[in-house]
């Protein structure tokens, strides 16, 4: 390729044949935009993949070459054809559109005329929250228009027109939410003292509700004894959790001990957020996930538990041999997301989990 005209020929007249032997991973490794690589993969399936109509597939390819369709134009057609459910109808419309020799803009206009419009899906009734940014969050509410019209009417009643309306509506909304003390209760944060165990202490075993620690002098001590001797007493009502730099959460000590709740508390102390990158769900809103699935022999032990939001708990790949959406692994005592492509990534939003806080 010696000049710009050669480049244009490669992406137009000879564009389709450049997808022979297409390798999506190779495209990604070469720095191609992932959305573009996905579109090229779809084109490869349409024009070179297995089909029930090889003759029409061949005819579509001939038309695309003859009229010099660019990869962007072909990708445009597939995006517009995607809502069409029946393969035969899609192919019929594809062949009709491939008869047109025109610019990208004209092709888009023609597609709008030929491809029937699908009615938009009605919005789902729901409430959603964004992650925190500089101490603020945004709430979005989608509900029946009459209900929200009533709410807006209440928020706008008797506002001062000389001041910003939106801020006054927020103040009125918070008044309605809190009421006279009988409204929405305030979430009370639960402080938990995180105590790192020195590396010279080895976690030996669980013994009843406690954990036995092995010391470098050849003696043993329980976790409760360690806390009472070096950090706190039971009488002062302190709630404290022990974390080992390699094995993670060790045990949780309080006046009343309930194993299931104790495991949940420690799992949520280990990570304050769902571990999937960019997820905004806090540990308090998460479900407790078995890293090694129960059906595969995973036990309900601390080193096999992680807080996952409802969505990621359901799409997690329980079978590591069939990874499609990614899965959670325990890495040195910390649950970490493992991508289908083989790399590990952490959720850097609100990075105040116990293992990160204590051991970095």
UniProtKB/TrEMBL annotation:
User: InterPro entries recorded for this chain?
Assistant: HNH, HNH_nuc
The record ties this protein, via SMART domains, to:
HNHc
Q: Does the keyword rRNA-binding apply?
A: no
Give the stretches traversing the membrane: none
Q: Name one Pfam family in it.
A: HNH
* HNH nuclease domain: residues covered: 262-314
Recorded coiled-coil stretches:
none
Q: Which keywords fit this entry according to its UniProt record?
A: Endonuclease, Hydrolase, Nuclease
Q: Which organism is it from?
A: Corynebacterium glaucum
Q: Name one GO molecular function term.
A: zinc ion binding
Protein name (database record): HNH endonuclease
Q: Do the record's keywords include Hydrolase?
A: yes
